[in-house]
């Protein structure tokens, strides 16, 4: 029998095919830079002509309607354009076009810190470093923009803007260029990629084409990196004290690339392009996406150009932990930053009707619950998702006047509280599941609420299930300092191993990223919810988004103290001086399950800026060495040219193994071999006539030998090489397990430590 499609079905299929063929989207186009004909005075003119020649829409030939979005000058050889599939394919047929790919979308990886890191008034005294030196350092932040009225950008006492600065403060409908000053010296916005993705307009009333931050994230990250000291700062009474950035003397330049639907690669590349030309010393990017080959990773491509120009690039590792192999921004020329806790907490308790007291955390700041316990309810609603407290999942007749227990996961933590409140609930306990383990993140909920870990959550669920009249009373205890143990690796912090290049250990380090106080936007409440009418000058947030700008600011301090150091030398100093013991003198632990952490979670360890000022030895890496590294990957010459932006590359001198790169840490992939041998070169940045001896901390299944075992440096700047041989012991099963060790060059003044990760198979 023949089944005939209805006319409506045929029409829908036709419309779908028509839309599929004609729908336009943003593409990033890589061009053979040297192919520009002499008849065109600029690459921009050439790109415009190329787009006109393949246009399927003759009406879009005017400059204002041109499909060309950005012409890239330093970060990338090429342009981005708004094209349909046919036009993109037509471009790719040209010999001058090397690659065409869709615009990738990245997401944001969303006071006490300076003291915790040792950045007090005595910082750098022993090394002869003056904090005023950072006045010449410019930190560029790619994020959601800036709230310039924040006290964190007060420029009182700051000298004139460095003459090297070529940037500017852009005006917009809600942003006067005069709002910039000697602290906030630049503010720009890049929205063409975003606007094209959202049909040429803005998706919310709050958004506008200006550098103004209506999200809060960008103000938080930039003030963390280099905010001025603000006394009597707090978040609704929590974390009271002086709020200050890492490099209080440094200048801030903000580049708004993130909008309501994400951060688009075309906008990010344009901002990096501009920031390099503007003259920044450090670039901070608290955003990321999935892993991709470096030639398709816009952040990796833009960062390579920055590195080559002497700009240090710091990126967040991502918030996809504790899932294995979830780390993002893994290019070796980028500093990849995970997150740890501070020695500060915000305790809150749930006193149960059975006499037990459950310990949690909270930033709730409204009226308390009084002294009368309330009934507890869990998973009582009108849908299968009521345990998660998703919008519309709770039955008001069941939860009204009660404390609701919500499982963590799927929707935002603060949204769960709003759902409970809207359904008539008077309080909430958010309980972790296996995915978040024992990690506690404090939130400024709209109703009395606390967060508890998985074990406590399991006890709570069992109590509700087994007791005929379960009750609780929530109690909030404010701010507590000197918490032990700390730091602890945050459960959300993304983990290695590195899936793009397993021979490079990532993340590089961890920094403070849990419950961080910093500046905030006045356009939005602290939860980010539309129904949150509260306004506050500071907010407390968690994420690798928060740890990344800590390292960006510290890199600025090192740049000021050692202006001759390359980005890789600064990175090396931060990595080899990082610590691996917490404040109880025990190895770092993992908040996911309270087990011992390892370098796939914390990299080289937690940053120690005081020691990083004087690391003794550094592992330096030149641009040519990075090219030798790229040549050792399974990339075509065109792929490598896309990253390094040179007319051609010579791979005759490539590394035999990507792990031969002169990296400050080791990641050994045996892959069927029993022996792996790496050579490293260290540069003496300490005193003349320094002698170092090697200390090896091995792994159960691997033998490690280092030759020579002693390095003697006669002069400052002298370089010495050593070779490490790793031998997998007989009988080791080729499983997906990982083991860890370390190699440390030691003398009475310095411990130059490199972690080593071992794996037997690709992950």
TrEMBL record:
Catalytic residues, chain numbering: 143 (charge relay system), 217 (charge relay system), 545 (charge relay system)
Subtilisin-like protease fibronectin type-III domain span: 660-757
Location of the region described as Disordered in the Swiss-Prot/TrEMBL record: 196-225, 590-609
PROSITE patterns: SUBTILASE (PS51892), SUBTILASE_SER (PS00138)
Ranges for domain Inhibitor I9: 26-108
Peptidase S8/S53 domain: residues covered: 135-589
InterPro entries: PA_domain, Peptidase_S8/S53_dom, Peptidase_S8/S53_dom_sf, Peptidase_S8_Ser-AS, Peptidase_S8_subtilisin-rel, Peptidases_S8_3, S8pro/Inhibitor_I9, S8pro/Inhibitor_I9_sf
A family per Pfam: PA
Biased composition (Basic and acidic residues): 204-218
Gene3D superfamilies xref list: 2.60.40.2310, 3.50.30.30, Peptidase S8 propeptide/proteinase inhibitor I9, Peptidase S8/S53 domain
PA domain sequence ranges: 375-460
Keywords: Glycoprotein, Hydrolase, Protease, Serine protease, Signal
Coiled coil: none
Signal peptide: 1-23
Family: Belongs to the peptidase S8 family.
Protein name: Subtilisin-like protease
Source species: Brassica cretica (Mustard)
Lineage: Eukaryota, Viridiplantae, Streptophyta, Embryophyta, Tracheophyta
């Amino acid at each position: 029998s023949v089944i005939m499609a209805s006319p409506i079905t045929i029409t829908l299929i036709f419309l779908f095919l028509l839309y599929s063929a004609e729908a336009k989207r943003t593409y990033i186009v890589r061009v053979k830079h040297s192919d520009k004909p002499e008849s065109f005075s600029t690459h921009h003119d050439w790109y415009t002509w190329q787009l006109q020649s393949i246009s399927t829409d003759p009406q879009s030939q005017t400059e204002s309607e041109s499909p060309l979005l950005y012409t890239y000058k330093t970060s990338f050889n090429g342009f981005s354009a708004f094209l349909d599939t046919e036009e993109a394919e037509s471009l790719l047929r040209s010999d001058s076009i090397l690659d065409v790919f869709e615009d990738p979308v990245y997401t944001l990886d969303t006071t006490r810190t300076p003291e915790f890191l040792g950045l007090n008034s005595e910082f750098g005294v022993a090394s002869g470093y003056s904090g005023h030196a950072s006045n010449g350092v410019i930190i560029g932040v790619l994020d959601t923009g800036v709230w310039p009225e924040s006290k964190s950008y007060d420029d009182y006492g700051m000298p004139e803007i460095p003459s090297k600065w070529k940037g500017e403060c852009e005006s917009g409908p809600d942003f006067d260029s005069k709002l910039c000053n000697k602290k906030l010296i630049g503010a720009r916005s890049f929205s063409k990629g975003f606007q094209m993705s959202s049909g040429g307009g803005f998706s919310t009333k709050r958004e506008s084409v200006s550098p103004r931050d209506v999200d809060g994230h960008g103000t938080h990250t930039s003030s963390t990196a280099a905010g001025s000291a603000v006394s009597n700062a707090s978040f609704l009474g929590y974390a009271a004290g002086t709020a200050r950035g890492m490099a209080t003397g440094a200048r801030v330049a903000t580049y708004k690339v993130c909008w309501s639907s994400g951060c688009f690669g075309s906008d990010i590349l344009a901002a990096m392009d501009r920031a390099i030309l503007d003259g920044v010393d450090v670039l901070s990017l608290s955003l990321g996406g999935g892993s991709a080959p470096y030639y398709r990773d816009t952040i990796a491509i833009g960062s390579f150009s920055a590195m080559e120009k002497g700009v240090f690039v710091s990126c967040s590792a991502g918030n996809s932990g504790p899932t294995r192999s979830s780390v993002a921004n893994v290019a070796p020329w980028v500093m990849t930053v995970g997150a740890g806790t501070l020695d500060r907490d915000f305790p809150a308790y749930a006193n149960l009707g059975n006499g037990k007291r459950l310990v949690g955390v909270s930033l709730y700041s409204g009226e308390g619950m009084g002294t009368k316990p309330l009934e507890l309810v869990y998973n009582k609603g009108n849908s299968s998702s009521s345990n998660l407290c998703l919008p519309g999942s709770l039955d008001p007749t069941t939860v009204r006047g009660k404390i609701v227990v919500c499982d963590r996961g799927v929707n935002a933590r603060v949204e769960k509280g709003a759902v409970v409140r809207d359904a008539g609930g008077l309080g909430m306990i958010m309980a972790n599941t296996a995915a978040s383990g024992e990690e506690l993140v404090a939130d400024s909920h709209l109703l009395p609420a606390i967060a508890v870990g998985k074990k406590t959550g399991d006890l709570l669920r069992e109590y509700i299930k087994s007791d005929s009249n379960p009750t609780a009373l929530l109690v909030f205890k404010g701010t507590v300092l000197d918490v032990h143990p700390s730091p602890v690796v945050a459960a959300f912090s993304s983990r290695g191993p590195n899936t793009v290049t397993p021979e490079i250990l990532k993340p590089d380090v961890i920094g403070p990223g849990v419950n961080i106080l910093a500046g905030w936007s006045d356009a939005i409440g602290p939860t980010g919810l539309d129904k949150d009418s509260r306004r506050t000058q500071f907010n407390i947030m968690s994420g690798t988004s928060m740890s990344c700008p800590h390292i960006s600011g510290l890199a600025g301090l090192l740049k000021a103290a050692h202006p001759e150091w390359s980005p890789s030398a600064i990175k090396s100093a931060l990595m080899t001086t990082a610590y691996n013991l917490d404040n109880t003198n025990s190895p770092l632990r993992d908040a996911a399950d309270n087990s011992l952490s390892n370098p796939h979670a914390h990299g080289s360890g937690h940053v120690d800026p005081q020691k990083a000022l004087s690391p003794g030895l550094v592992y330096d890496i030149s641009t040519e060495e990075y090219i030798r590294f790229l040549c050792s990957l399974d990339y075509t010459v065109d792929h490598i040219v896309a990253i390094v932006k040179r007319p051609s590359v010579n791979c005759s001198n490539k590394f035999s193994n990507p792990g031969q790169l002169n990296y400050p840490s080791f990641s050994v992939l045996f892959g069927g071999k029993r022996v792996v041998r790496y050579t490293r070169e260290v540069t003496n940045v300490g005193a003349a006539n320094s002698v170092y001896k090697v200390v090896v901390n091995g792994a159960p299944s691997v033998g490690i030998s280092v030759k020579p075992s002693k390095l003697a440096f006669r002069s400052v700047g002298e370089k010495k090489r050593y070779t490490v041989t790793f031998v997998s012991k007989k009988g080791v099963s080729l499983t997906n397990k990982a083991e860890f060790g370390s190699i440390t060059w030691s003398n009475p003044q310095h411990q130059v430590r490199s972690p080593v990760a071992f794996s037997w198979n690709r992950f």
